[in-house]
Write a structure and sequence with these properties.
Layout (H helix, E strand, L loop, with lengths): L12 E3 L7 E3 L11 E3 L5 E5 L11 E3 L4 E5 L11 E3 L4 E5 L11 E3 L4 E5 L11 E3 L6 E2 L13 E3 L20 E3 L9 H7 L4 E2 L1
Parallel strand pairs: 1-3, 2-4, 3-5, 4-6, 5-7, 6-8, 7-9, 8-10, 9-11, 10-12, 11-13, 13-14, 14-15
Keywords: Cell membrane, Glycoprotein, Membrane, Receptor, Signal, Transmembrane, Transmembrane helix
Membrane topology: Single-pass membrane protein
Subcellular location: Cell membrane; Endomembrane system
Length: 202
């Protein structure tokens, strides 16, 4: 049980990825303020409110993909040093505008969560390399706003409510993979090659 970590106040890294027997509530990590890297990916018995990390101001990586973590992502709005966040297939919710001040973000996975909001939030995220919003049906906005995230390499928008002109991504020259199935954009695939010839549209 991860409760055993409660008193490890000086620990900087926790990694239990794909450990099916690890269980417990992440609230026990609330006072581990020196955490830099947290990985419980695939630990289905790990649960609790993501607000447990709201005061871990030096944290850079949080990977809770596939856990039973819940709560609002608004609790993460002050994590200015975070570079990598994986919350896919969790129970989290909230508005993606919570990431407006997380200017160091490079990799974000929110696939199949109840996160909502407008992609305008990411319009100035010029360090962002991966943004996965797959299956987030309440994510809206015009794809043109993502043209400002010019370092994007993978962009997954399948199943979202995003609209606009796909060629507006012309400045995202590093983009290698774009997922737009199940969106209003999927009938524009043929036009992408004109502005981003090296990008695969899936």
């Amino acid at each position: 049980n991860i409760a055993a970590l409660k008193s490890a106040t000086s620990v900087k890294k926790i990694s239990f990825a794909d450990c099916p027997n690890i269980e417990g509530d992440i609230s026990c990590l609330r006072n581990l303020l020196q955490l830099v890297d947290v990985n419980f990916n695939g630990c289905r018995k790990v649960q609790g409110d993501i607000a447990a990390f709201e005061n871990t101001r030096v944290v850079q990586k949080i990977d809770l993909g596939g856990t039973h973590i819940s709560g609002s992502i608004e609790a993460l709005c002050a994590l200015e040093h975070i570079t990598e966040l994986n919350l896919k297939h969790t129970l989290v919710e909230g508005n993606c505008r919570s990431f407006k001040n997380c200017s160091e973000l490079k990799r974000v996975w929110l696939a199949h969560t109840a996160v909502q909001g407008n992609v305008l939030t990411f319009s100035e995220a010029n360090k962002l390399e991966i943004l996965s919003l797959y299956g987030c049906k309440d994510i809206t906005g015009d794809i043109k706003y993502l043209n400002g995230a010019s370092n994007l390499q993978l962009l997954s928008l399948s199943g979202t409510a995003i609209t606009g002109d796909i060629t507006s991504l012309r400045d995202c020259t590093k983009l290698k993979s774009l997922y737009i199935r199940g969106t209003a954009l999927e009938n524009q695939v043929a036009y992408l090659g004109k502005v981003l010839p090296n990008c695969r549209c899936l």
